[in-house]
Amino acid sequence: MQTMKRLLAAVLTLTMVFALAACGGNSGAADSATTGAAAPAETAAPVTENAVYRTLYASEVTTLNYLITGRTNELTIAANVVDCLVEYDSYGNVQAALATDWEQNEDATVWTFHIREGVNWVDKDGNVVAPVTANDWVSSARYVCDAANDSDTFYLMGDVVAGANAYYDWTAYQMALPTATDGTDENGNPVKIITDEDGEESVLEEVPEASVEDIGVKALDDYTLEFTLESPRPYFLSMVSFGPYMPVYGPFLEQCGSKFGTDNSNLLYNGAFVLSTYQPQQQRVLTKNASYWDKDNVFLDAIQMTYNAEASSISTTMYQSGEVDQADVSSNLLSAMMADPATKDLIHPTRSDTSYAYWYLFNFDPNFDEEYEPENWNLAVNNENFRKSIVHAFNRMPALATNDRIDPESLKCNTITPSGFASASKDYAYYGDLAKYTEGDNFDADLALEYKEKAVEELTAAGATFPVKMLMCFNPTSPNWAEECQVVEQTIENILGSDYVDIIVQAGPETGFLSAIRRSGKYAFMKCNWGADYADPETWTDPFISWTDSNGEVDSNSYSFICNSTDPTTQALYAEYMDLVNAAKAITDPNEMDARYEAFAKAEAFLLDHAFAIPFSISNRSYQMCNLNTFEGQYASFGMANLRYKGEHLYSTSMSLEQYQQAYADWQAKMAG
Q1: Closest CA to 238 of 425, 79, 24, 530
Q2: 3-state class (DSSP) for residue 67
């Protein structure tokens, strides 16, 4: 599957179990996602007339096509304008949405959803276009599985839904054929040759023909939808409210062609809001959908988002003048604003979010400029003692304090999979060898120096030079990231010495950072992140796993590129990690979730034992002034639930820190039982 993704790029150049508890045979869930919603803050009354939530944004979207994007800022729009089969209440409990009920067969390979009748697709002006039917999920699956559409979230369907990978590979193969040339292999046999964008040639392996009809997404009738899976997926219900499992009206998609999702006229809506205004780098407005099936639980009349490249620096002033309803408070302003009587009672944190986590990663396939000595870095990064010296010299608390000076401890994450993300008989983070990481801390200056001594001896013998240059990049549009990098540089170099490592902090581009830096491998050491796509620890292996193509070659992933390392020791360790992951994936019996979690924990602990990643934090809990009560909104530790505005009221003013803490305590108590 990943081979065809790479092949496609060449052709285009040339031309938690919150849901798991509800998955097991659940049928007939409650209708409203606001069932049991947290009580609003006591200090302010909700706005009941012209409830327009006004906010700023600094990063423009590149597409509105929710079937191909995996970017949070783009999915924030999608989550509010297109509903899915299920959604979640404010405590993470699965709720009926476009499916009123569902059932699964005994081994969780066939899932049947009964579609809500009377729901309509509307245009940007709210005019009814067509009813929502089971056929809309068939249309989206066929679109996502067509390689020509190059969906970033196809991977969520490819290895899951029967026939999805086969059809993707077939369509990619058909795209490649016109650009292939005749040649011979090493044995003189005739073959087709494909040339990639770098001029490298490879054999185009023949792919068995596949039919779109074989994709395991079927409309049994207009209101009965069936998914057939490649293998048992006890957590499948938690996958269907994200990316490729979102519906689309097929005739409209065909009519739009390549224009689908290019603006708000080339999109249809069945969610709580419609994108009534879309003016890139000016404004976008989400207006309440008057035809929405659950409109009584939508309390905002509109969401007005105004573009401003300086949003992070001017939003606090605009909030105080009443021009916007939300403003992030940067860490450098936080202390002063908390001490100011005019603002101290308006500031509170955002809710802790375990659906995203951050790690500092070592890049095993450096593609940066010669001045940063990529060959020397290759020697260093493949030395485990060198990596461990960095791991144990990294004191995370000063770095976390750049993002939260009041409570940095609340951000700390000691594992790849955050604590509280999922559980079977206990929290996943306490299974097996993960427990020692969950309850501990990697920072140990003495141990860092011991590993340094070993690394110096080994690397000197291998021909490395010191100091080892470590290129560390950051996105200049991300609040506090530059300051965080400076702190990371200082803390590591102060312990290990600048004669050992020279951390070079460099700003990346303001736009296209992921493509230009992370996906291109133009860094040595950098903070990276991942968002959970479904309620199972398997989702946290995706940034690290690789795939083998039909030639037996390992395809790269877009993070630390461990699989691209040519070092025999690293290759052997990585092969062992992949074996552990595959063994965990093979445990699919819903009655053996403890064994499944134990196996995934063993794989994750192996990754940490060999210092391939340094866990850093959950999604940054920033501080803000905001006239919403986040505890009213939908919640899940995966997917798009936290991006939805459904269920939230607009208030006349913001919560104070004390009011937030009380609301958070109440929310946690209700979550617990």
Answers
A1: 24
A2: coil
Residue type, 55: T
Pairwise pLDDT comparison (421 vs 284), residue with the higher score: 284
Q: List, in sequence order, every residue forming a beta bridge with 565; answer none if it has no partner.
A: none
How many other β-carbons are positioned within 10 Å of the β-carbon of residue 673? 5
Q: Which two tokens stand for residue 358?
A: 């951050």
Task: Report CA Rg, the chain.
Answer: 25
Residues contacting 222, CB < 8 A, separation 6+: 115, 133, 134, 135
Prediction pTM value: 0.78
Cβ proximity of 530 and 542 under 8 Å:
yes
If we measure between CA atoms, which residue out of 75, 95, 78, 76 comes closest to residue 86? 95
One-letter amino acid for residue 350 of the chain? T
Asked if 56 contacts 573 with a C-beta cutoff of 8 angstroms, the reply is no
DSSP H helical segments within 417-552, as ranges? 434-438, 445-462, 481-496, 513
Tokens of 82: 């297109």
Q: pLDDT of 515-536, one tens digit each?
A: 899 888 999 999 999 888 888 9
Specify whether the CB–CB gap between 549 and 3 falls below 8 A. yes
> Is the confidence at residue 467, as pLDDT, over 60?
yes
- Burial class from Cβ neighbours inside 10 Å (0-12, 13-18, 19+) for residue 255 reads exposed
Region 548-554: what's the mean pLDDT? 47
Strand 52-57 relative to strand 302-307, pairing:
parallel
Residue whose token pair is 């299974």: 431
Rounded CA separation 165/4 (Å): 10
- Comparing CA positions, the residue from 260, 27, 227 lying closest to residue 134 is 227
Give per-residue pLDDT as tens, 204-250. 888 999 999 999 999 999 999 999 999 999 899 999 998 899 999 99
Task: Name the band, by pLDDT with cuts 50, 70 and 90, for residue 548.
Answer: low
Reading the block at residue 69, the tokens are 């994007």
8 A C-beta contact, residue 625 and residue 327: yes
Question: Residue 215 corresponds to which tokens in the numbers above?
Answer: 């994709």
Specify the higher pLDDT residue, 259 or 32.
259
Widest distance between CA atoms in the chain:
81
Q: Given this model, what pLDDT does residue 354 score?
A: 79
Q: HSE, CB side, 13 Å, CA atoms: give it for residue 637.
A: 22
Structure tokens at 478: 């991300």
Per DSSP, 161 falls in state B
**CA nearest to 163, candidates 123, 210, 200, 127:** 210
**Given this model, what pLDDT does residue 31 score?**
40
**6-46 pLDDT, tens per residue?**
333 333 333 333 233 223 333 333 343 333 344 444 557 89
